[in-house]
Amino acid sequence: MPPHTSQPAPDRTAATGRSRLANPGAHRVGDDDARRLSVSASRLSAVLETLDAVAVRRWCATGLAALRRHQGEIDDLNVYPVPDGDTGTNLVLTLTSAQQALGLDLDTSPEGGTTAHGHALRLMARGALLGARGNSGVILSQILRGLADALAPVPVIRGGALAEALRVASAAARAAVAHPVEGTLLSVVAAAAGGASETAGDDLQAVARAAADAATRALARTPEQLPALARAGVVDAGGRGLCLLLDALVEVVTGEPQTRPAPESRPVRPPATAARETGSDAYAYEVQFLLDAEPAAVARMRSALDALGDSLVVVGDDPPPGQPGTWNVHVHVNDVGAAVEAGVAAGRPYRISVTRFADQPAPAPPPAPDGAARAAVVVAPGAGITEIFSREGATVVPANPSIGELLDAVRATGAARVVVLPNDPATASVAGEVVRQAHPFGVKVSVVPTRSPVQALAALAVRDPKRPFEDDVIAMAEAAGACRYAEVCHARREALTVAGPCRAGDVLALVEGEVHLIGADLLDTCTALLDRMLGGGGELVTLLAGADAPAGLVDAVRAHVARRWPFVEVQAYAGGQPHYPLLVGVE
Predict the structure, then answer these.
(1) Is residue 532 within 8 Å of 511, Cβ to Cβ?
(2) In which element (H, E) is residue 583 found?
(3) Dihedral, CA atoms, 335, 339, 340, 346, nearest 10 degrees?
(4) Chosen CATH of 374-481 out of 3.30.1490.20, 3.30.1950.10, 3.40.50.740, 3.40.50.10170
(5) Which SUPFAM superfamilies has this protein been placed in (predicted)?
(6) Would the CATH topology of 53-254 be identical to that of 484-586?
(7) Distance (Å, rounded) from C-alpha 75 to C-alpha 81?
(8) What single DSSP character describes residue 138?
(9) CATH 1.10.1790 matches 285-359
């Protein structure tokens, strides 16, 4: 069953918005004048006075395209010059999940009492929540949730409603963060809400522009608010992503592309696929195919298929009027031949897939949690680390999981009490949301806030199933907190750190997330790091060799510790983690 990726719905804004084109007068115009008037009329016909469900879907698609174009740029806005800055990637994955949620419910009517635009906003927010990755993704999902909560009951969304919704969204995002910090995405969304609320009148375009402009100004101020950004010479990455989303909203409501200064690259268009749905038992077959056809022919085909069955989903790539596009068609029918013939009448169907439901085993329901069982779920960034945690009896999830992926892992354990070890500051936000999401399933989740795999190893070493669960979690947290952690990597770019300036290619040693040493030689920097950490005391050193660690590095570090610190025990493993040749733990 192929994964579903929604495509932008056909542009129907001309039908939902009102043209504000003034009468050009009765005088004759030349060809150039006529061309200018034609362009002007086309642009103004896309202007929206209200935000409807179609516009919400277009905003999601437009915002996702903008994030994809600038994904690398946002990834590079990392506070430290380490090689795994991934805020842009996290935002793209989060909004991709939001768009998929919209696509899965493309032709489903809203629930009773819910507006069509509210239904779309709630789908978007729910998809973002389950797909959220990292701090930025979790905060973005809360912003979308705040917008949905505020706008769903509003009959018609104009400027005043949008301004109030941004205020609610800003409050929701701030409430989701235990210790809010200025100079981050929170500051940018707050400024957007402030700019929107200061706009007089109820004009949707004016409020959207004011919010986007205020967010851009706030983004420029983030280095003044957060010293770490100033040292790195960058603005906040999450805030940059939000600015792109607000610019996308302006583009949707005004019909005018936004061209704020930023490096441009070709957008990546997701494949046109659709998810298989259950549908009614009255239909025995699922038919799916790709179709090259013009929008008008697709509309006729949609009507024909709608009369044949249910679970009809048709998504496409929004081609220009009069030109063929690529569409994905999904329907449940009894007459397979008639469904395929409808596609032939519309254009060129291919990759035709027919599934007989009677041949498909029914999905097994997730097991009810065992009230007496407990489990540990650990996030691991490398194959070697994964094997180590698996031997310790933990369920392992790959690095940078979404909320949905981590929640699935928690439920798959079948235990009613689960401890989660995120092993990364960004994933800690994801794990925190899983605590709330798991509760309705009867699963109690506790998070031990580990920031490195070496801390997770220390925590798992003291786990004792004979203790009460809460006491066991406390013991694991104490063991993790007593383990100081460090990591060694190569600088990806020139930057100013608390240890001084560094250049691309320099070796960086980070202790507890802060750059402490900058060197030119990997081994020398690693040994200097161990000397600095053991100078504050320690009895056990854990070394995890990365995937790109040179041969002999760990042995040389072990030999150095044996000579310099003869009473310290050293345990070394092949971790296989990317980016970091060496991870260090000192207990």
Answers:
(1) yes
(2) strand 582-586
(3) 160
(4) 3.40.50.10170
(5) DhaL-like
(6) no
(7) 11
(8) H
(9) no
Which of these, 403, 91, 55, 126, lies nearest to 243 by C-alpha position? 91
The whole-angstrom separation of Cα 515 and Cα 517 is 6
What CATH number belongs to 484-586?
A: 3.30.1180
* Rounded CA separation 268/337 (Å): 35
Q: What is the CA radius of gyration of the chain?
A: 27
Per DSSP (E only), the strands in 360-490 are 370-380, 395-398, 415-421, 444-447, 484-490
Sorted by sequence, the CB contacts under 8 Å of residue 420 that are 6+ apart come out as 376, 377, 378, 406, 410, 431, 434, 445, 446, 447, 448
Task: Specify whether the backbone of 154 is left (phi greater than 0), alpha (psi in -120 to 50) or beta.
Answer: beta
- Amino acid, res. 243: C
Is residue 127 within 8 A of residue 98, CB to CB? The reply is yes
| Helices vs strands, H then E, count in the chain | 21, 16
Determine contact, residues 570/454, Cβ cutoff 8 Å.
no
543: CB partners within 8 A, 6+ apart:
554, 557, 558, 570, 571, 572, 573, 582, 583, 584
> 159-195 burial, b if ≥16 CB within 10 A, otherwise e?
bbbbbbbbbbbbbbbbebbeeeeebbbbbbbbbbbbb
Contact assessment for residue 400 and residue 414, using Cβ atoms and an 8 Å cutoff: no
> Candidates 1.10.3720.10, 1.10.10.10, 1.25.40.340, 2.30.42.10; correct CATH number of 53-254?
1.25.40.340
Please state, in angstroms and as integers, the Cα–Cα distance from residue 486 to each residue in 112, 453, 489, 585, following that order.
54, 10, 10, 6
Classify 500 as helix, strand or coil: strand
Report the amino acid identity of residue 254: T
Strand pairing category for 370-380 and 395-398: parallel
Domain ranges of the chain: 53-254, 285-359, 374-481, 484-586
Q: Which residue has the tokens 């939000």?
A: 242
Ordered per-residue pLDDT tens for the chain, 587 residues: 333 333 333 333 333 333 333 333 333 334 444 333 333 333 444 678 999 999 999 999 999 999 988 888 887 777 666 666 678 888 988 898 898 888 776 445 555 557 889 999 999 998 888 888 877 888 898 899 999 999 999 999 999 999 999 999 999 888 877 678 898 899 999 999 999 999 988 999 999 999 999 999 999 998 888 887 877 778 888 899 999 999 999 999 998 887 776 433 333 223 322 233 334 567 788 787 778 888 888 889 988 988 898 767 665 555 666 777 777 677 788 888 889 999 999 998 887 877 776 665 544 555 667 667 899 999 998 888 999 999 989 999 988 888 888 988 999 899 999 999 999 887 888 888 898 888 888 899 999 999 999 999 999 999 998 999 999 999 999 999 999 999 999 998 888 888 889 999 999 999 998 899 999 999 999 999 999 999 989 999 999 999 989 999 999 999 999 999 999 999 999 999 988 999 999 99
Nearest to 587 by CA among 541, 545, 554, 544: 541
Q: DSSP assignment of 85-108, as one string?
A: --HHHHHHHHHHHHHHHHHHTTTP
